[in-house]
């Protein structure tokens, strides 16, 4: 298989499907959601992440950088990302771990070694493996090879997807999947483009096709104050889901801002800015729109 570009391997996960799971996070996504809690997942290339609070002012990074991208400005070390080539030399000499490369290529054998190490937990808990991102379907060859290897070992396999991929990509992997976790963000096409960078036309079309396949489907809706929590937005999402075949499970997830510090660490802007997460009353109001249409909804998950 083509090596998969991975930015995280999370063991003992309990929020990415049933039971205890290993979640494999592919790097690279066709969406650029303004609220993304893993902004380092969006780029299809390795990135330099800086953790300035760990810096011990040893200057080893600047002395080592072959491109002259690191200099001191006042009391702080700054990295010129226009010059940086993400070669990793500065990371290698930063013993305080204040400089990291996010995203590296893994072979099938490397990934399966980690996945198989927790096989006993999958068996005992009814868990398995979830492929997330980023967008796993943007890495079709690597994803399919991993799913085939997991199926050969009898692991429950789940795909966590934003849905923005050719339907042919879904068709390639659906026979290998036990569960699809599908993100549904906004029904309004203009707001969807404004906040994610792409139209929702393909996403909604794929969701309708997926619902007709009979594959187990969990819909996950992030509740972002001021973005998709208005009565019109919630009612539109509920009505769309009500029209899907197969009665998929519905989860609403409260937005959180714990990852907001990641944006400056990778040199990115946090377009959403600082907003307060939805409180319990707001989550209950959101759930009511689905319950009114006879759609059982679960908060969190």
Topology pattern, helix = H, strand = E: EEEHEEHEEHHEHEHEHHEHEHHE
Number of strands: 13
Q: How large is the radius of gyration?
A: 21 Å
- How many helices? 11
Q: What percentage of the residues does DSSP assign to strands (E)?
A: 15-25%
Overall pLDDT: 95
Q: Kindly report how far apart the N and C termini lie.
A: 32 Å
Uncertain stretches: none
Shape designation = globular
Model description:
With 301 residues, the chain is of the alpha/beta class. Helix content is 32%, strand content 22%. It has 11 helices and 13 strands. The strands form 3 sheets. It has a 9-stranded mixed β-sheet with strand order 7-1-2-8-9-10-11-12-13. Strand 4 and strand 5 form a beta hairpin. It is globular, with a radius of gyration of 21 Å.
